[in-house]
Amino acid sequence: MKFLSDIRLLLLAIWLGAAVFFIGVAQGAFAVVPEREIAGAVVGRSLMLLNFGGMAIAVILILTSMIGAARISTFWLWIERFLLLIVAAACAVQQFVIGTWMLSLRVRMGGPIDQVAPDDPLRMQFDQLHQYSEWVLMAGMIAAFIAFFIVARRKFDKSRTTDDVYDFSKEFTT
Questions:
Q1: How far apart are CA 135 and CA 129, in angstroms?
Q2: Domain count of the chain?
Q3: Which end of the chain has fewer CB atoms at under 10 Å, N or C?
Q4: Using CA atoms, how far apart are residues 121 and 105, in angstroms rounded to an integer?
Q5: Are 86 and 139 in contact (CB under 8 A)?
Q6: Which residues contact 53 (CB under 8 A, 6 or more apart)?
Q7: Is 130 helix (H, G, I), strand (E, B) or coil?
Q8: 120-172 confidence digits (pLDDT tens)
Q9: In a domain, 6, yes or no
Q10: Other C-beta atoms within 10 Å of 75: how many?
Q11: Each residue of 83-105: pLDDT tens digit?
Q12: pTM given for the model
């Protein structure tokens, strides 16, 4: 069970790290790449990978939360599952709803977004969807962050054991 908790924590940490890294990649791409359309393509592709990874990791973590569930506080277990569901939903909404609408708007604009007037209704709708995309990503990251600490708390919960939590010699014993 300890090993499974370690793997679950690692998966959450990987996705959170990827999300934070994505934010840096997005800012860097628009700062460095001379054509904003190319930078947008790089960011869109990176976001797609982040979203599919987030959905997969959330589903895996929800499924693995059922292993040994009898020994875990029901309240915290359901809070964790709910938070993981938020992560999966945030990634799915970003990918399949917001991303699809933004792509549709880009096609309807018929050219580079920067060449469309800022007061154009399509451009304003695109900018608003972009803002929603940022908020949805942030909601997923916050949910994953809280879930990370719930899983970590369970791993080091002193009420379940009288062992010293800092005695690493017993980490892989049964």
A1: 10
A2: 1
A3: C
A4: 10
A5: yes
A6: 15, 18, 91
A7: helix
A8: 999 999 999 999 999 999 999 999 999 999 999 876 665 554 445 445 565 56
A9: yes
A10: 8
A11: 999 999 999 999 999 999 999 99
A12: 0.84
